[in-house]
Amino acid sequence: MEIQELKDIASQVRRDIVRQVHSSQSGHPGGSLGCTDVVVSLYFHFMKIDDEKGEDGFLKFSREGKNEDLFFLSNGHISPLFYSVLARRGYFPIEELSTFRRINSRLQGHPATHEHLPGIRIASGSLGQGLSVAAGAAYAKKLRQDDKLVFVLMGDGEQQEGQVWEAAQFAAHHELDNLIAIIDWNGQQIDGPTEKVMSNKDLKAKYQAFGWETVDLSNGNDMKLTVEALNEAKQKTGNDKPVLILMKSDMGFGVDYMMGTHKWHGAAPNDEQLEVALLQLPATFGDY
Amino acid sequence: MKKYTFTDKKDTRSGFGAGMAELGKKNPNVVALCADLVASLKLDAFIKDNPQRFIQCGIAEANMIGVSAGLALSGYIPFATTFANFGSGRVYDQIRQSVAYSNTNVKICVSHAGLTLGEDGATHQILEDIAMMRAMPEMTVINPCDFNQTKAATIAVADYNGPVYLRFGRPVVPIFTAPDQKFEIGKGWMVNEGKDVSIFATGHLVWEAILAGEILEKEGIDAEIINIHTIKPLDEQAILQSVSKTRCAVTAEEHQLNGGLGDAVCQVLSRNMPSPVEMIGVNNSFGESGTPAQLMEKYGLNAQNIVNAVRKAISRK
Questions:
Q1: For the whole prediction, is pTM greater than 0.95?
Q2: What is the CATH number of the domain that holds B265?
């Protein structure tokens, strides 16, 4: 897919994000907007996904994902992004985004399998668990001699969880070179800038010391650079080491007043703020 | 009283190891994970026969649970193994989100449960794990009583689709159940039919209940003894049927009184058939170092304690 097409999809996904959060007056727009470009490029360009459709016209989905690339979202609070991408990619009706965080919805506050929403393979929200699950899935692909890749997206604040480092040592020890982890390095977390709350210090050196390959993505909100970084990461797979993409991003990217601050981590726009946001994000494929 | 004899004693964890060895031969989807306790969990035979299907996780239990969930997505049946303390409280949130809420087919199989791991003391003597796992939606909780039953339970949980917490122990205990028995998850096992009191026991306490039944018989008390190896889902029908006949009950478990088998039985009875219940278990305290027998005596978990509880329960009818 051309870069411009991916950018167009990203614009629509960003509209979906702010509209979902506005509608339910809850949710996490900041990280969702910041990670939009990488998740769009994964699902619409990079990942090998089985495009077979069921009788209902939506993508057939299996939790196993045999002979498919898999994506796990560890920082589950950016669920509005995940849901929009899955709906736009054809896993379930786009109109269902209007049920986000409402009672009796499949679109839970944080991603869940419990309501059987197609596209979700594991629940996430309690941080620090996604890398372990992705490592297990990558291990299973090796055992099954399935040569597809496993991706996992984590937050930078999430790197403060000890389990992340248990998983990092596991993946390196077992040479899971079919695993690509992405850290959304936006430098913000709930209580403020990450450097103030609990500094990550040199994440790149940390992962390298754990035995990982690393790829720098200087701007994860530049679609071209993002696709290039994914390509570089893929080229580094198959060499006995898991691969990390350190993705610098702007929390809230695409909506000017949400950028450069942690204040929109978990806050919803009011009606006026929504209008301002939507003016900055062209509707490219039609709103739900 | 039905006669129970034994010719051999073994640890229940060896029953787990024997079950795993058999599963390794017959089910290619079974994989074993361990957090640096391979010898304690008796996994040597499984690993020797199936080196590709064993995953060493090191001393990192939280990650082991997540890896297990990831493996389960592709149809593998991961058996995540460690000590009960490290496979329950230490990783509660990982089990809750990645296993139970996500309904991944992970079997959490834990040894050294309760007081009877002995000399290592209270840091390792988990007495709250049944309560934690019982409270968790989607979780099945099993606590078999001897080598043969633990082996059978291990094989049975591989055929069951869903999260399981399988709890067993370290000390050698009498083998009194049949080899190659059929293990039915959720079905109480009638040890002895009686009419004066119902004793519901689980794990190592089942043998103590049998010893208690023999003492009671000499006093003219005819005790019904039921082995509740599956604490969740609880065999409510067996409990109600028994108490409808005996009108009183004693529960016995190597676990805290709070939240364990006793609480589960009381919940069923209070809703359906309010009856006197006496509970044998650890009363709101931690354990300590000592031999298993010393600990069971000091904390009130042996046959004599069950006998005393039976007398009290009957007196309250």
A1: yes
A2: 3.40.50.920
